[in-house]
Structures are given as C-alpha cells and as structure tokens.
Write a structure and sequence with these properties.
Blueprint lengths: L12 H7 L9 H5 L15 H15 L6 E7 L5 E7 L2 E3 L2 E7 L3 H8 L2 E8 L4 E11 L2 H10 L2 H9 L9 H15 L10 E15 L7 E6 L11 E5 L2
Antiparallel strand pairs: 1-2, 1-5, 3-4, 4-7, 5-6, 6-7, 7-8, 8-9
Helix pairs in contact: 6-7
Length: 241
C-alpha cells in the first residue's frame, strides 16, 4: 500500500544529528595543511573547453571509484521551479553533451516545456568541478536506437516496464511489470520504446573549478553566443573564487 501519511521524526533526532557532527565545521589552518596534497601549477591554458573537459574526464576515470561520467542535471518546469537529479553522460562532442531518459518522466516533461538545462560534474577524488548551461534538443532516432541496442537486455526490458516518476503501490508492482514485459518479448529483439529518448545539451557556458586551500579556489569560465553554431568561438576569463 502507498504511504498516506508519515509519522514525525523521533523528538530531538535532528538536534542530536547536528550535535553528532553530520555537518562538519569549517576547517581551520591546521586542517587545511593536513588535508592531503592538492594539485600545483596553473590550470590548463586550453582555449577550447571541450579539450579541457576531455582531459579532466580522462583523469576522473582513473581516480573516481564509481561513475566518473555521472552528472547532476538541472531542469525547470513551466513555472520556473528548478529540479535536479543525477544522470550519466553517454556521449559528447562539438555538438554537445548527450544523456538518455524516459521522456514521460518528470525531467522529460520539464524538458518538453522548457528545453534548457544545466549540468554539473563533481569529482571528489580530484577536487574538481565543471558546470555547463545551455539548450536541449533531441538526438536523432538513429542515435537513440543505436545506444538503446547497446544496453543490457534487462535494462532494455526495464525501460519498457517502468513508468518512470509515476507513483507505484510497492516494489512488487515494478517486479510484476518487469516479468510481464520479459514474457512479452520472450527471446526476441527488444526495440526502443517511443518514449525513451536522448537529449543533447549544447553549452553556451562552461566553468572549470579546482579546489585550493582556504576557499581560494581557481575558476575559469568559457562562454559563447547562443544559437547552436559549432564554429562559434569561445571567450575565456578567470573568476574570483
């Protein structure tokens, strides 16, 4: 059964959680000095942020324990209320940054009414972050078909079975739909669902951030005119932390 109401937290639970240090205090000078090595030298002088992105993602793949291509995707609904969640980057080139999702999901509905988004990559192992902003367009049917076909069979079944973002009665509801979908396709081919699409973010702004002691971080911002012109030149500037 769906939860109709929730009991309030045990009295004092949040206060105890704060007292037990779930949120650490700001570090002092000694903690900064003992917080491990940080990279030395200036940030890359690359004039093309895509080249710099590829360099940073390559390093993250060597150091991140899970999903170096994970990124926060921020969208907004028709009223401008923002929403954010983690998704996986599946491709990038001069045309933009690609991810896939159910177009009937909450984010799919938001993209339909407001096809703009922001992305954020945060790599704790490197103490680095990259933010992007831009417009969204759908990838071609051929691109979506090719990527869907590369997914594991059970993942393809799940794309058909899950009514992403809709309420469900319980885990059994999902498992039943997965079993029914598996039975439906048997051992045959599993085509891409019409609601399962890819989106490409064409960035007009990219910012590269690197951690430095005492919050004196390094930031490089790139920007270019809107309009999805791949030949548009980027401008580059340093920002105060």
């Amino acid at each position: 059964m769906s939860d109709k109401s929730l009991e309030p937290d045990e009295p004092g639970l949040l206060a105890r959680a704060r007292a037990e240090g779930l949120i650490p205090p700001s570090p002092d000078e000694a903690e900064y000095a003992n917080s491990g090595e940080r990279e030395q030298g200036p940030l890359s002088p690359a004039a093309d942020p895509l080249v710099l992105f590829a360099e940073w993602l390559g390093k993250a793949r060597q150091t991140e324990p899970n999903d170096a291509n994970a990124m926060a995707l921020a969208t907004a609904d028709a009223d401008g209320l923002p929403d954010v969640r983690m998704v996986l980057l599946k491709d990038f080139d001069a045309g933009g940054f690609v991810f896939y999702t159910n177009s009937l999901s909450a984010k799919g509905r938001q993209i339909a009414v407001n096809p703009q988004a922001a992305l954020c990559f945060h790599w704790k192992s490197l103490r680095r972050q990259i933010r992007l902003r831009g417009s969204l367009t759908e990838v071609t049917e051929a691109e979506a078909d090719a990527y869907f076909a590369s997914r594991a069979r059970l993942a393809r079944i799940g794309a058909w079975a899950s009514r992403q973002s809709d309420p469900m009665e319980g885990r059994l509801d999902l498992e039943t739909r997965v079993a029914q979908t598996a039975l439906r396709f048997g051992t045959g081919a599993i085509p891409r669902p019409p609601h399962w699409k890819g989106y490409r973010l064409w960035p007009v702004a990219m910012e590269f951030w690197r951690d430095r002691p005492f919050r004196l971080h390094e930031r490089i911002a790139f920007s270019r005119p809107a309009g999805e012109n791949e030949s548009a030149l980027w401008s580059r500037k340093m920002l105060f932390p």
